[in-house]
Every structure is written in structure tokens, then in C-alpha cells.
Amino acid sequence: MCNSRTASTGSIMVASGLPFGRWGETFSGDDAVAAAMIDQVVYHAQGLTLTGDSYHACQRGELLAKYNRTPSG
Hints:
mainly alpha, 38% helix, elongated
């Protein structure tokens, strides 16, 4: 994931719905690969953790309420 063209001059943004502790699940349970990816992502990085419902989850809830539907159907 290291991009030598942007290493000193630009930025790369990575977004994930999973905390780092669950990244191994994404790589077929390979925690070593996940750890290597995390190492590259956080090297000289500034992290930002957001909490609460996502914008899309809020919008979906509002639409479901508007049409009197439940999330399952």
C-alpha cells in the first residue's frame, strides 16, 4: 500500500467500517496480512475515529419511518 509517488507530497485516505482488530476477517482470517496492512496505513498517519450512526444509516431510518416500514421489509 505504500505509494512512493505520494509518500512525501500527498495524502491517501483509507476508510473502513471495521476497527483494526477485525481487519483479519477481511483477509480470510490472515492476521499477519492484516497487521502488515495496518502497519503501512498508520505509519506517519493521523487517525480519526467517528462514532454514531452513519449518514446513510440515518437517511435509511428516516425513509423507513416515512413509509412506515421496518428495516427487514
